[in-house]
Design brief:
Layout: E1 2-5, E2 27-31, E3 47-51, E4 57-61, E5 75-80, E6 86-91, H1 98-101, E7 110-115, E8 122-124, E9 143-150, E10 156-163, E11 172-178, E12 188-192, E13 207-215, E14 222-230, E15 237-245, E16 271-274, E17 281-287, E18 293-299, E19 305-311, E20 326-327, E21 335-340, E22 346-351, E23 354-359, E24 369-371, E25 379-384, E26 390-401, E27 406-418, H2 421-432
Antiparallel strand pairs: 1-27, 2-3, 3-4, 5-6, 6-7, 7-8, 9-10, 10-11, 11-12, 13-14, 14-15, 15-16, 17-18, 18-19, 19-20, 21-22, 22-23, 23-24, 25-26, 26-27
């Protein structure tokens, strides 16, 4: 494998385990959180892209900003559209809005798109309306959307959501679609996918918090997520894997946007299915490219976080073994940053700072893991190129001043690993002998 450092400038280049590759695989987008003051999104000063072959960096969006314990606007968590030359990211209040809106916070942000050509053409995606003296503007949100993710065909945007008006409810998940009834000046109509139960007051089986969500299928008819759910004893909580079904014919405008006393409600036709009922489930869940499997994090008997997969129509209560979850790794240290290969045959993750590839195609090699790196570097925020031949990730790396022959403080730099499939397949055969 050929690993190389791509970025070298004295700032952070945070990938955040989002959809950071451009559609042609030639660029990566990132934010600069942690470069000044602290690692908070509030202190990220710009959205940028880097050309992998040359290391050339281009600022895509850089609003006026402030730094400090409280800050604005907060621009971060960027993802590339799967087919168009634009990116989407979190945007908090501008400096001119701080007096009215307050500083950046999880309940004080929206989604914004900007062209990826460097011309800084900006588009407002979701309207924010926190007025309580009248119903919430139809199609608007009332707090903050986060970790925006396009479907693989680009027509829906999923996200996590935190409500400003009704803070008795915890985080939930939602989606947006371009719609002619979207609020004027904005491109998308907003809806939650789940109204969570009030914190601490749920009944057995009710979800109080939804997070770790991601699209399962390319068409965006399934969004998997982790739910904190009240246990059957009515006292404890479980963390379980769920799927929200969003049929193509769902009319997003049938959702209820809420008012000063009522929390938003999903559109008519949304179905929530629970896939796991025992054990711990977590991580950002990931759907295979064919939409048939979901990868997520579980814990083994020693409490180590492992990678598991389950059929999208599966359940740990099923009598059919093919529908039951399967733990596919046996690491000694926690797994994180799950990503599928486009072939659906491999799942990549980070464990002990190294990149692991686990084969998940049914057959004799199912569950075989090959370590693609094996050193003491601390890799994080793994992402995979659209063609599946390059992996990118972050490593905190000191910057060298060649004139002074000394190193400055470490910054999050971008590295890429070019995959040698002949070598990988040779190792796979060797593992099987």
């Amino acid at each position: 494998m050929n690993e190389k450092q791509v970025s070298f400038t004295e700032k952070n280049h945070a990938l955040d385990n989002n959809d950071n590759f451009s559609p042609d695989g030639k660029f990566l987008c990132y934010d600069t959180r942690g470069t000044v003051f602290n690692g908070s999104i509030a202190n990220s000063k710009s959205i940028e892209k880097i050309e992998i072959s040359t290391g050339k960096e281009t600022v895509l969006w850089k609003p006026e900003s402030v730094t400090g314990e409280k800050a604005a606007p907060g621009v971060a968590a960027v993802s590339w559209h799967p087919s168009k030359n634009k990116v989407i990211f979190i945007h908090g209040p501008l400096l001119s809005e701080v007096e009215e809106r307050g500083y950046y916070g999880i309940r004080n942000r929206t989604g914004v798109e900007v062209s990826a050509d460097g011309k800084r053409t900006i588009t407002k995606v979701d309207m924010r309306d926190i007025s309580t003296d009248k119903p919430t503007y139809k199609g608007a949100q009332r707090g903050g959307t986060h970790r925006h993710e396009y479907t693989r065909i680009g027509h829906r945007i999923g996200f996590t959501y935190d409500d400003y008006i009704q803070q008795k409810q915890n985080r939930t998940i939602g989606y947006m679609e371009a719609n002619k009834l979207a609020p004027s000046g904005y491109t998308h109509y907003f809806a939650v996918l789940l109204k969570p139960a009030e914190k601490g007051k749920s009944k057995a089986g009710e979800i109080e918090k939804a997070y770790g969500d991601s699209w399962v299928d390319s068409e965006g008819t399934m969004r998997a997520f982790i739910g904190n759910v009240r246990a059957e004893n009515g006292i404890d909580y479980d963390t379980a894997l769920f799927v929200a079904e969003i049929p193509d014919n769902v009319d997003i405008t049938t959702s209820f946007s809420g008012n000063g006393d009522e929390y938003p409600r999903p559109p008519k036709g949304i179905i929530i299915r629970r896939l796991t009922h025992s054990g711990w489930a977590g991580g950002i869940v990931r759907g295979s490219f064919d939409g048939k499997k979901i990868a997520y994090i579980t814990k083994d008997k020693n409490g180590v976080k492992q990678v598991s997969v389950i059929a999208t129509d599966g359940s740990d209560l099923s009598d059919n073994k093919e529908k039951q979850p399967q733990q596919i790794t046996n690491f000694k240290t926690d797994a994180s940053s799950l990503r599928w290969h486009p072939s659906n045959n491999w799942i990549f993750c980070v464990t002990n700072g190294n990149i692991a590839a686990t084969f998940v195609k049914p057959g004799n090699n199912f569950g075989k893991t090959i370590m693609l790196t094996n050193d003491k570097q601390e890799r994080s925020a793994l992402v995979v190129s659209p063609d599946g031949n390059i992996i990118a990730y972050n490593i905190f790396t000191p910057v060298k001043d060649n004139l002074k022959n000394e190193y400055s403080k470490a910054f999050q730099q971008i590295f890429v690993l070019e995959l040698n499939w002949d070598e990988i397949n040779s190792e796979l055969k060797k593992e099987n002998n």
